[in-house]
């Protein structure tokens, strides 16, 4: 199949809808790295994607952000529910999805994901060998039916969503890119010490 430049639209999407229990309830989007909030690092990394959305469980305390807030409509389903909500409510054809705790931002990876999507018009998922890495990735509205089936089945794994959608997707093999996530207080202490 010959690749061609596509007109499909893309937006940036930050997943911030969790309870942050491993961080003692601290909202990760407001944590700081090198004096700047995670939100600002992620916003800068996603600026080439176009519009910016933030997936939240509740609007508070995110009302002051200069992004469109998207309140989850699939309660208790984790990231898959937040992404589905964004795909249903956004005007764009696809979302470049990043977790709120992915700092430092892998700028080259985000640029590669956007470039592949804009060239092919297909969802894009990074991989390390035969292991899919579903965040960050480009999710499209065409993937919604598979996600809704999985949610109905009680299977809310992002990798399961990609496995069900693979026929219509692009895979970006990673060799040397490191993606860091701040999952715990200890992770944050390590990051602060860098």
TrEMBL record:
InterPro entries: MobA-like_NTP_Trfase, Molybde_CF_guanTrfase, Nucleotide-diphossugar_trans. Gene3D superfamilies: Spore Coat Polysaccharide Biosynthesis Protein SpsA, Chain A (3.90.550.10). Keywords: Cytoplasm, GTP-binding, Magnesium, Metal-binding, Molybdenum cofactor biosynthesis, Nucleotide-binding, Transferase. GO terms for molecular function: GTP binding; metal ion binding; nucleotidyltransferase activity. One of its GO terms (biological process) is Mo-molybdopterin cofactor biosynthetic process. Residues 12-154 form the MobA-like NTP transferase domain. It comes from the Bacteria. This is MobA-like NTP transferase domain-containing protein. It comes from [Clostridium] hylemonae DSM 15053.
